[in-house]
Design goal:
- The protein has 7 helices and 10 strands.
- The chain is of the alpha/beta class.
- The protein has one domain: P-loop containing nucleotide triphosphate hydrolases (Rossmann fold, 3-Layer(aba) Sandwich), CATH 3.40.50.
- The strands form 2 sheets. Strands 6-7-8-3-9-10 form a 6-stranded mixed beta sheet, sandwiched between helices. A 4-stranded antiparallel beta sheet has the order 2-1-4-5, with helices on one face.
- The protein is globular and about 60 Å long.
- Bound molecules: adenosine-5'-diphosphate and magnesium ion.
- Magnesium ion (MG) binds next to helix 1.
- Magnesium ion binds next to helix 1.
Length: 244
């Protein structure tokens, strides 16, 4: 198997007027191609900060991050933008669709900025991505704000898939969905991983972990394995402090 993500001892310190926030304090993780990794942790633990670094939206303060073998620190901002658009598909809690644009237009949009997709292929690729997430053809010309939450999230997943990225990064993708719809969306991520996509999904919903191959935990900016998390929770319970 090849490594899609190889992260060693990442730190991210935010400098604000109020002072320094040490949001990541040594996160290490390796994700292989085709793996579905779930990252769990309480609110404020650094999950979105990690997602932004993994997604090349932000640079770490220290530590190394290799994406498909490339050391991200050696790349220019233009290189990072190119990697973001060609190698990474993002899915967010709030869907982030253009609400007044049609379903098809939303999914074609990343291809407009792609250097690798000829104009003549945009439509075909968008249709293929929508079919893969089970959006029926009669919805293709609807505006995205006419869809249900579950349909919106599946369109957002189609948009994330359309450039055939190496990595799908999802930050709380089921946070706005009811449980039946969440299950459908999570099964879809599972199916994508089974088909060889690499999926990293951030959540604080324990149910998500059932769909993933592996779960790691983030607490106070540090990554913990499942065993370390268990030991941490056991220690808190012993002191009567377990709340999450
Ligand atoms: P999570 O996604 O797990 O809720 P975040 O990564 O959003 O956690 O936040 C981790 C810590 O970093 C929090 O203390 C948060 O207040 C702080 N933080 C996040 N983003 C910024 C920012 N842009 N500037 C300053 N502090 C931030
Ligand atoms: Mg967050």
């Amino acid at each position: 198997m090849s490594r899609v993500l190889d992260v060693v001892n990442l730190h991210r310190i935010y400098e604000t007027k109020a002072g320094l926030t040490h949001a990541l304090r040594g996160v290490s993780l390796v994700v292989e191609r085709g793996e579905f990794l779930c990252i769990m942790g309480p609110s404020g633990s650094g999950k979105s900060t990690l997602m932004n670094v993994l997604g090349c939206l932000d640079r770490p303060t220290s530590g190394t991050y290799r994406l498909e073998g490339l050391d991200v620190a050696t790349l220019s901002d233009d290189d990072l933008a190119e990697i973001r658009s060609s190698r990474i598909g993002f899915v967010f809690q709030s869907f982030n669709l253009l609400t007044r644009a049609t379903v098809l237009r939303n999914v074609m949009l990343p291809l407009v900025y792609s250097s690798t997709c000829p104009k003549s292929e945009r439509l075909e690729r968008a249709v293929r991505a929508l079919v893969a997430v089970n959006i029926p053809e009669e919805l293709f010309d609807h505006r995205s704000n006419e869809l249900s939450g579950g349909q919106m999230q599946r369109v957002a997943i189609a948009r994330a898939l359309v450039n055939d990225p190496a990595l799908i990064l999802a930050d709380e993708p089921t946070g706005n969905l009811d449980s039946a719809t969440s299950e459908r969306v999570l099964s879809l991520f599972r199916k994508l991983a089974d088909a060889g996509k690499t999926v990293v999904l951030i959540t604080h919903d324990p149910e998500v972990a059932m769909y993933a191959d592996r779960t790691i935990y983030i607490r106070d900016g540090k990554s913990l394995t499942a065993e370390e998390e268990q030991a941490h929770v056991a220690a808190l319970q012993a002191r009567g402090q377990y709340a999450n």
